[in-house]
Backbone:
């Protein structure tokens, strides 16, 4: 029996809902990438998306001779005690994973919520 309900994935990670007794627990989503997993509700995931955008704005490669081959930099998370060291490639993949997960969460909420006739 499958214990998860897949929601979104890319080459870097995956996001899914946990199942318990055959019921999908949609109050929080598990987001897993690298050796890290976060169990976030929608507000926490939105906060993470904003932190990712902020990190992208601060850490541009414009005018840099290394052009995306630099050392890692810190990405803040909604968990105040946890920051992640990520490369520009990893940041882009995490951004895609989080944005895709939010999109799918909202789509499911609409389709199975107010979108029902």
Residues:
């Amino acid at each position: 029996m499958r214990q998860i309900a897949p929601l979104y994935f890319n080459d870097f990670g995956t996001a899914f809902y946990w199942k318990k007794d055959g019921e999908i627990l949609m109050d929080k989503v598990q987001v897993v990438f690298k050796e890290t997993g976060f169990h976030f509700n929608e507000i926490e995931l939105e906060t993470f998306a904003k932190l990712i955008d902020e990190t992208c704005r601060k850490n541009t490669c414009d005018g840099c001779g290394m052009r995306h081959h630099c050392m890692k930099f810190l990405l803040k998370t909604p968990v105040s005690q946890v920051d992640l060291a990520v490369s520009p490639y990893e940041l882009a993949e995490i951004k895609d994973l989080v944005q895709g997960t939010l999109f799918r969460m909202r789509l499911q909420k609409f389709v199975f919520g107010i979108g029902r006739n």
